[in-house]
Amino acid sequence: MKNRKLLMIPGPIEFEPEVLRAMGVQTPSHVAPNFIEVFGNCLDMMKKIWLSPSGQPFIVSGSGTLAMDMAAANLVELGDNALVISSGYFGDRFKDILDRYGANTTILSANIGEEVALDIIEQELKNRKYKLLTITHVDTSTGVLIDPEPIAALAKKYNVISVLDGVCSVAGEEIQQDKWGIDIVLTASQKAIGVPPGLALLVVSQKAIGIWKNRKTPVSNYYADWQNWLPIMKAYQERRPSYFGTPPVNLIIALEKSLSLILEEGIHNRINRHKKLASVFREAIQAIGLTILPKTETVAANTLTAIYYPEKIKSIDLLREMNNNDIIIAGGLHPQIKASYFRIGHMGSISENDMISTLSALERVFYKLNYKFELGKSLKVFERACIE
Ligand SMILES: *Cc1c(COP(=O)(O)O)cnc(C)c1O
Fold first, then answer.
1. By percentage, how much of the chain surpasses pLDDT 90?
2. Could you tell me if residue 44 is inside a domain?
3. Mind giving me the DSSP string for 41-60?
4. CB of 6 within 8 A of CB of 359?
5. Which among 2, 31, 156, 225 has the fewest CB atoms less than 10 Å away?
6. How far is residue 207 from each of residues 56, 131, 301, 310, measured CA to CA in Å?
């Protein structure tokens, strides 16, 4: 027994051994020339992965929620109108954050498993002058994927800043920040970026930086204020030493490794690999009679799949039995239906073999829990689709 479990949750994910090894180096000074080079490389590589040659990257110690907080803190002033396009738990969180900074927030919530229709968004933008809108690219609570391109185009048309919560999508779903005109694309290290938790990553358009510079009131969050971080990012980009708050040196060394691996694979190839694995996985899951939460294929994410339990199977039983079979999966998160579905993450270095192990364990566990179907069916469908 190797006593090794496979972590199939939507973040943290399984990390590449090289990335983990990179973390283990003796910690250098944050102003050591070799570390300045590493930090600068990370910022340069982010612009390539986000497809935003004109954007301003930020790497700050914190989780994805800090990245959301940073966007809100720097752009919102008391009384600004903000529009949240929500497809689940993380859209709702963005409303809470925006409200905290004094925004007047309107939320357009999709039905569970669906997206908000474009004409509803446009109607809302016509009705009221908004300063910014937020989109959750993949809402990790529902596995629903939203196409940000047409929404960003609407934001441009009505002169609204667009913010994309890409925590569960950057490096796993297609994003062309500059081409699509998205002002902020933010993520965290532990999801498709493939680095242990602890880094908030953002790329910000020059337009959004300009709006922040022209604020009438100071940013009401000291740690998140770009006033403190922009000079630091610029210094590292120009390979100069600087200090505001000590960066998580080892995590950034690991980030350089992971971003290099992503660019080596090629961002386009990587997205296609995610797309293929996810669609074949959905096909396999449905072949044994299970229902996925996204209502259509177009809104089904490539980074995770949310699946309803078959009748009579309880969440704790499935998660426990999967764990006994060395596969860790996640329960539900959307408050309204939390107990009726589970989630499987499949991003980063996940392979066909990992998916097969997961499907096989699922089949065995379902069988044990008395949900019956043709044994081996999901594996057959998966394997066949992989060969084609
Ligand atoms: C995970 C996640 C977050 C929150 O990130 P943390 O690192 O847990 O703070 C926000 N939005 C989405 C879409 C996520 O998947």
1. 97
2. yes
3. HHHHHHHHHTT-TT-EEEEE
4. no
5. 2
6. 10, 12, 29, 48
* CA of residue 167 to ligand 1 center, whole Å: 5
134 burial (CB, 10 Å; 0-12 / 13-18 / 19+) is buried
Q: Which tokens in the block code for residue 124? A: 């809302």
Decide if 308 is inside a domain.
yes
The mean pLDDT value for 238-243 works out to 97
Cβ-in-10-Å burial (0-12, 13-18, 19+) of 252 comes to buried
Contact between 261 and 19 under an 8 Å Cβ cutoff? The reply is: yes
Q: What CATH number has the domain bearing residue 288?
A: 3.90.1150.10
Residue nearest (by alpha carbon) to ligand 1 atom 12:
167
What is the distance between the alpha carbons of residues 148 and 154, in angstroms, rounded to a whole number?
Answer: 10
Do 71 and 171 belong to one domain? Answer: yes
261 and 273 fall within a common domain: no
Name the residue of 140, 169, 195 to mutate for ligand 1: max ligand atoms within 8 A of Cβ. 140
CA of 130 to the centre of ligand 1 (A): 24
- Tens of pLDDT, residue by residue over 187-239, are 999 999 999 999 999 999 999 999 999 999 999 999 999 999 999 999 999 99
Q: Coil, strand, or helix at residue 114?
A: coil
Residue 65: other Cβ atoms inside 10 A: 16
Residues 38 and 159 in one domain: yes
Residue 186 CA, ligand 1 centroid: distance in Å = 10
Q: Which atom of ligand 1 is nearest to the CA of 188?
A: 7
For the CA of 169, the nearest atom of ligand 1: 13
Q: Name residues whose C-beta falls within 8 Å of residue 297's C-beta, 6 or more positions apart in sequence.
A: 279, 282
Domain residue limits at 31: 17-265
